[in-house]
Amino acid sequence: MAWVLKMEDAAIESGLVHDFDASLSGIGQELGAGAYSMSDVLALPIFKQEDSALTLNSETKNPPFQYVLCASTSPAVKLHEETLTYLNQGQSYEIRMLDNRKMEELPEINNKTVKSIIRVVFHDRRLQYTEHQQLEGWKWNRPGDRLLDIDIPMSVGIIDPKTNPAQLNAAEFLWDITKRTSVFVQVHCISTEFTPRKHGGEKGVPFRIQVDTYKQNENGEHTEHLHSASCQIKVFKPKGADRKQKTDREKMEKRTAQEKEKYQPSYDTTILTECSPWPENAYVNNSSTASPAFTTSANNSYTLPDSNSSSPNHQVDAVTQATLDQLSPTASIQEAQQWLHKNRFASYARLFSNFSGSDLLKLTRDDLVQICGPADGIRLCNALKSRTVRPRLTIYVCQESTPTKNVAHLKGTGDVENGEHGSNNIYVYHAVYLEEMSASELTRKIASVFNFSQSQINQVYKQGPTGIHILVTDQMVFNFQDESCFVIGTLKAESGDGYHVIIK
User: N or C: lower Cβ tally within 10 Å for the chain?
Assistant: First the structure.
């Protein structure tokens, strides 16, 4: 509403100044008749009729439920900021489930149960984006543990509580809104477990406790969203929350009265504030029906066929096999999932549950690092771009006395050491790539190239000066020149059992 002040005479002006002085007397210690500006005046409640109307309208729309966490809020939170509550790891905390409906509001849920899902989620947007990977890492370090549990013996009024092994940070239960209901929860993760440990004494990340409530649909399933609310928490090791609360209180006591006015007081309980429902299917394949019910691991599992199975039902077709080795841009979502499992990226399968081969290949290195973290992001980028690691040593070998073809116009001269032969015969060489740089690896690779049985090879010799045979050792292989050429010959062992391999 616009206000126009018409100063027609000195009396009106004098009266207005007097009224303004009286209105502004409580705004600040140094604010007087000549120290305020029109922007300060317009911010006064008397000029906020539109805001007041909005407030009245919002008061008429009470949330249907209210959830109260029985734990004190921190006194070190500034005004207009969200409350912060400290919890001890593994301690049971009560959350009161209250019916907050007005008369005749939502009559369809009278005499019926509703379902609530309680979650511990990340407050930080960056961590929310990589929630699945963060939780998988926590699971790896804490096998068999859960992030969130319901203390059933202490809880009151909850019906059919459930936890899903695939969702370590969530639990669900039914409750009758006409009866007293309190659920006691335990949070087992601590805030510093998700902080990059660099120098010690890191500041822990904040979590959120969120409650999503659903009513029954026509089929009697609790799938229709009613209400969601959450609050910000930090979790400390046992008794750590008490010490942190005491430290914050002592810091506030040392502040001046004027500084204390910038902070909100500590409350004995924490009221969860309304929020958007948590996206249940954030990491679930969209082929499954969207439902607030817990997703089962079966919906997200991809069984890789056994390539060694003789059963026709387990044979891998050529297209699928090629997809598992190198991801094709034409790969379907199912084939992309199989590729991720095959290449040790199973923990990211749910995150990329809707990505085809083309979608994955379009992701840049920076995209993958941001999604999967530096280590796995770079590894996934290299796998997608088929960046192979150069072998430490490459040699070329040819089996002795196996010319493939006589070609009159190709005349070779030179020595065998350089892969050349003094004849018109073309010899086919095989590349042998060595990573371990050991004699055993060389023996294994030679046997594989020439279809020998490794058990048939007794010793491997290198032909030296004057035709002597030198036993090949790890040190000799290590000193082979890269891309050297050798001719491989065989010599029957003295015992008559097996052969000696001679590298010439």
Answer: N
